[in-house]
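Internal QA ticket QA-208
Title: Verify multi-chain structure generation after dependency bump
Assignee: T.L.

Test input:
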Amino acid sequence: MINHFCKKPLWECSQTLAAVAQGRQPADLVIKGAKLVNVCTAEIQEDIDIAIAEGRIAYIGSADHCIGEATEVIDAQGSYVSPAFLDGHIHVESSMMGAGEYARAVIPHGTAGIYWDPHEICNVLGLEGVKVMMEDAARTPLKAMVTTPSCVPAVPGFEDTGSFVGPAEVAESMTWDGVVGLGEMMNFVGVVNGTDHAHGELAETLKADKVITGHYSIPETDRGLNSYIASGVRCCHESTRAEDVLAKIRLGQYAQLRYGSAWHDLPVLAKAITERKVDTRFVNLISDDTHPHTLVKDGHLDHVLRVAVECGIDVIQAIQMLTINVATCFRMDNELGSITPGKCADIVFLDGLDTLNVTRTIIDGTVVAQDGKPLFDYEPFKFPEWVTHSVHLGRQITPESFAVPAPDGAKDSVKVRTIEIIPGKVGTFETHVGLPIVDGKLESDLSQDVLKTFVFERHHETGTFGVGFSKGFGIKCGAMASTVAHDAHNLLVVGTNDEDMALAANTLAECGGGMVVVAKGEVLGLVELPIAGLMNDLNAQEMSEKVHALENTWEKIGCTMPSPFMTMALIPLACLPELRLTNRGLVDCTTFQFVDLEV
Amino acid sequence: MINHFCKKPLWECSQTLAAVAQGRQPADLVIKGAKLVNVCTAEIQEDIDIAIAEGRIAYIGSADHCIGEATEVIDAQGSYVSPAFLDGHIHVESSMMGAGEYARAVIPHGTAGIYWDPHEICNVLGLEGVKVMMEDAARTPLKAMVTTPSCVPAVPGFEDTGSFVGPAEVAESMTWDGVVGLGEMMNFVGVVNGTDHAHGELAETLKADKVITGHYSIPETDRGLNSYIASGVRCCHESTRAEDVLAKIRLGQYAQLRYGSAWHDLPVLAKAITERKVDTRFVNLISDDTHPHTLVKDGHLDHVLRVAVECGIDVIQAIQMLTINVATCFRMDNELGSITPGKCADIVFLDGLDTLNVTRTIIDGTVVAQDGKPLFDYEPFKFPEWVTHSVHLGRQITPESFAVPAPDGAKDSVKVRTIEIIPGKVGTFETHVGLPIVDGKLESDLSQDVLKTFVFERHHETGTFGVGFSKGFGIKCGAMASTVAHDAHNLLVVGTNDEDMALAANTLAECGGGMVVVAKGEVLGLVELPIAGLMNDLNAQEMSEKVHALENTWEKIGCTMPSPFMTMALIPLACLPELRLTNRGLVDCTTFQFVDLEV
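Actual output:
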């Protein structure tokens, strides 16, 4: 497909590049004396100059003849230069920042391009919301290449989202310059079962000659995986075992080894290639999600690269997995992913192949970050009002809203289904607990660590809500609420008492969404996320501090698990086992049926 | 780009493939128990079944569940299966056969696809002629993917061809389904010098999102090569030294190592990868030209593969160079070049990895050749009359036509420039020879092995012709003529006396073109090539016998060099050094100037 992420298309500047290479015209920029990480031949070449014009590489060799009066010259002695990094699968919203601030956070870590699936905002605000994020991203040097969210809602029929994506919406989005493919096809059940909906979306992507990205998350590598790949899904980031990786690359699917803030699959997956001799061209390294504190503390793909090398992957091969292999996956290797003539001049400087610290990032021939700081101007993006006011409950929430009447005929106690969370994991257990009836109602029971849990539809003022109980947070008082509540991002409230739950819910309703902890009528901590109820326009450092402060308030009310909001935010995610709660009710996610609260 | 070379686009059959992989629907064909050459991971996998439906691969593993009553089952026990071969650069016309018979000749040798540059016929009959060849090819299973001839004429201003290609013609052809790129950009001088003509053609190809193929034939790998690659040329088959190959792949250009009938570069080039450890993903193996006797005696890409292995290239890497690496070069690896789900079922059976004999070829899921024989029906193509009558001299040729008056003022003898051929090489020398004046004219001089040489324009009846002398054929009597005369394919006549030269010329004019040897008023040998004066509709065996018989007649008149017609056919090729003769006159091909016969 035509690459729209460049300063100029090659056909508009090929004559200039030819002239610069020949020395008839000066380069805009020359990098002198670098150690080149050649991802084409998997070699290090010593003492290499790189001449750049029109945002593209014109010449590689000894480039004194390309230097004119106006040419900027960078001495790269002692540095390694590598193609800048490409993230083959990422959700910007996980950073809780808009795409602009996200770009400012990742570019200093060497990221030039992301293949992002904006499915969080799409669930809330549809493709119009995606467009707004794309506009924000386009104001930065980051090549923010969109894969259209394919599964909105994630589990049709079991939840209400703000929007809907089907084949027609996919077809429409494929005409946009910034769209390069289809976002993770989580509906692998629909694909292998051959539904018109899933295959209709695949078809519209294939007709547009773009790339289908995958999400095949089950440990089945035979008929199901073959079926999924035969349907045209070119890559998948959902491997959890080394054998998943091996099966995928053998079947010609790009295996995207994940090392994100939440999911650390890489060390296990790396064994697929470190414990046997295989061609690694079908392997990518990706992040999937990166939270602000990870960006501030560890970095982005540079961090993933360091982890990959620690896992025993050859450093040049690992760099290939972040550069040329990603570009080839997306069939854009004619434009991106290598430092070779004609390609976009997207380059990172590394201080060494042992340390792998990024000291400079160049995108389209411009130095856009140095020594950890972005160098490009960025005025805060003005999000439209409909983006920053996305909480539409259509009702007043009061303490009475959280009353849970005991089932008819129940006497002293009721045995209920609870969603038992597992710290640090995405799964839940369905656990049955006896709850006492108090004044004809069911209440949270701190002695059993069981909390009332509500999900209110917040997109279309339907007034619908789901009621359940969750278990395992360990809190002793207060309540929490969040509008980050995957994937429909309705308003999720968990708490010990109705007054605090109402306060938590109303606090978020008033500020346009976010994450809040309250206790005894007081707001202890609040991260406002007014952009679709998912993001803020603060920078990574500020967001990291805010999230950290909020997590401290969890501790105050008794919860000691790591990143509890992340675990809580998955309570409504009805595509994962075992028991979940959406705005339509409790869902048994092993049989995909609604179930009653009472066992 | 969208692949039009398949039974059905994937978006029309993804549901069927998913169903077959899952066992809900039977496969059309199942291959059982093969040793799979996995070009994705560079492994051999033992005892693999492959299920095929709708011409595509649906499933790989243990495929009993895909077998229904109507499923064809092939037992592959003992065989290796590999993706079928792709030739990244080939001129069908070199085979002297139409594309249909060419397909019948190469498919039994495992070739499923060719990226062909039909620039011979285009020089004669323009893009309309290309279209006719494409129609012929389309009647066979061969994926005959066209790269539009870029250099017609090869050296503008120095010869008259039947046609012309510029940016507008390239743009028009890019809308054709069968066109996947631009043919070899021989005008590397124009590219590095930035001419509008050359860059205009590159631009039209890039705008159409298709691939530019190259021809960079000088031993310069610095500024010129960088300039050429920066202009967007993705591959090049014109390496003659190992260092050329290394330079190209380091600069991200696909190096296509050639082993054709005429040019045997591979053994030298292979050292670029056998004598050092480099990633070989940017290496292809190609044939460029394959004459009928090579096809009959040695094979096509299977022969190149065997030579590559003899040269020390790892056999799996060599197979990658004929399959996935070629498909990736043309950005069609999502459709071709590997045996993986969803891809076109283009498969060869090999009897062993040591012998590498092709025993069966499958294209789009159908067995199209077995044990060296094509299995598909092919009715001889009916070429239109304007294709089979392409010799338009516009004049009667008589012995008097070959009179060469001595220059004014010359007395006993004249020192003339002669084109000295070099047996087995493409180059010539400019050699100065004194010729006696006989009756005021210059004649061939057998004592110095110098022969009169004429090139008559034969496309537009302009009546123009060039006069010169060539040296080195060794013949003692008679004359030869050919309408295969690169690249303009005018009528070339070389001989010892005017009567035989006239007979040779008129014999070809009457039969619509070809190659002829005459002596003493008698036609000793004739290969009729009525299709554009370049090809015949006979099959490879018949053509091989005819060419062999003709070569024997060369011996009869005294020439002992191998394939003398090939060497003779390059006399007019004004893009190669040193001295050449076109219909416009003698060309010094080192300075690109017309020169006089007399020194």
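Spot checks passed. Chain A touches chain B through 73 residues (CB under 8 Å).
Status: verified.
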